[in-house]
Design a protein that fits this description.
Radius of gyration: 12 Å
Number of helices: 2
Distance between the termini: 25 Å
Order of helices and strands: EEEEEHH
Number of domains: 1
Shape: globular
Strand content: 25-35%
């Protein structure tokens, strides 16, 4: 599963050709034992995540929306995408 970014103990992945189960652009997010699918618009599609970490992910998605959509468009075609580096 290709990693898109990592920050605050959260790992964000994006799968190639991942349009079957969830019909909207999304990422897969892992935090400790939690995992969730979160749409680029911030909607929790599946799984669970502590409220604080979900809010962090939603903020990150809003801030990086253009980059995430670019990665999504490449990934659904099975093409590699650039990793989004955390802010310093």
């Amino acid at each position: 599963m290709p990693e898109l970014s990592r920050f605050a103990g959260i790992i964000v992945y994006m799968l190639f050709c991942d349009i079957g189960q969830h019909n909207k652009p999304h990422v897969h997010v892992y935090y400790g034992e939690y995992e969730a699918a979160v749409a680029v618009d911030g909607e929790l599609l599946a799984g669970s995540m502590p409220h604080k970490q979900l809010k962090i992910v939603q903020g990150w998605l809003a801030f990086h929306e253009e980059e995430v959509y670019k990665a999504w468009n490449l990934a659904v075609r099975g093409e590699h995408f650039e990793k989004i580096e955390p802010m310093k």
